[in-house]
Amino acid sequence: MTARTQPSCTDALDRFAAELLDATTSLTPVKPLRDRLDHMDLTDAYYVQTAQLEHHVAAGRVLAGRKVGLTSLAMQRQLGVDSPDFGFFFEDMVHHDDARIPASQFIQPKVEPEFGFVLKEPLQGPGVTLEQAAAAIGAIYPAIEIIDSRITNWDIRLVDTVADNASCGAIAVGTHPLDLDLGDPVALMDVTCSLVIDGEVTGSGTGADVMGHPLAPLAWLANVLGEQGVALEAGQLILPGSFTAAMPVVADSTATADFGPLGSLTIHFTD
């Protein structure tokens, strides 16, 4: 899988990228892409995603980090897939503690509780190990990803969500790191996080639910991008995937990623 392999049907894929860019601003979703291109595969999907990334960077937006998605069994079952994916987000998509975020800026938002890894040094594969991934992390924060689909009614398969920037809508990250011992990466597997919507716990999971080990998605991402000559840079924020299944939110919803005594992050959705 590589976003830099040149597919053969670039006209159709460029059109898909333009449609998704328009949907991001118009908030009018598009029909599933898989139904409109025979044998669309992951190379095609990442081509569409990369075309959008290049468009935004050319317009002056600053890359803040990357997200890995579909890393938990809960999310894979929810979307009927069996492999992770990745996407990107920009500085103007990042919110913090107690942020008030207009629900109207999304089409069909859902939230996921996650770790937020801030890198203290570059990380580039291939060949990155869990130990090397752990050593590259400077701090771990509570995070919430707001996922949103530019595909009508969340009718997605893997190629649809990959093309749609792994369904990334926005990111919230705490301002205080979680009280975790970065010298003990095994302990991350035992960390428990609950997703709380309007005071009700909607799901809980442990670090082991994130692809078996929450550092595994970070190493996977570094290795996949490394094959393309792309490094994860110091200072970037990396979200490795959700502890729980995603839950929908609407205006007046409040969402919390609750890590118990380690810390938490709460955001609010407004009209």
What does this protein look like?
Strands 1, 2, 3, 5, 6, 7, 10 and 11 form an eight-stranded mixed beta sheet that branches. Strands 4-13-12-8-9 form a five-stranded mixed beta sheet, with no helix packed on it. The protein is 24% helix and 28% strand. By secondary structure, the chain is α+β, with helices and mostly antiparallel strands. Helix 1 packs across helix 2. It has one domain (63-270): Alpha-Beta Complex (Fumarylacetoacetate hydrolase, domain 2). The mean pLDDT is 93.
CATH class: Alpha Beta
Whole-number count of domains: 1
User: How many distinct helices?
Assistant: 6
Low-confidence segments, given as residue ranges, are none
Major sheet description: 8 strands, mixed
CATH topology: Fumarylacetoacetate hydrolase, domain 2
The ordered H/E elements are HHEHEEEEHEHEEEHEEEE
Brief digest:
This protein has 271 residues and is an alpha+beta fold. 24% of the residues lie in helices and 28% in strands.
Fold blueprint:
Layout: H1 10-26, H2 42-58, E1 63-69, H3 73-79, E2 85-90, E3 94-95, E4 100-102, E5 110-119, H4 130-135, E6 137-147, H5 158-163, E7 168-173, E8 192-197, E9 200-206, H6 215-226, E10 237-239, E11 247-248, E12 254-258, E13 264-270
Helix pairs in contact: 1-2
Which short descriptors sum up this protein?
single chain; 271 residues; alpha+beta; Fumarylacetoacetate hydrolase, domain 2; 8-stranded mixed β-sheet; 5-stranded mixed β-sheet; 6 helices; 13 strands; 28% strand; globular
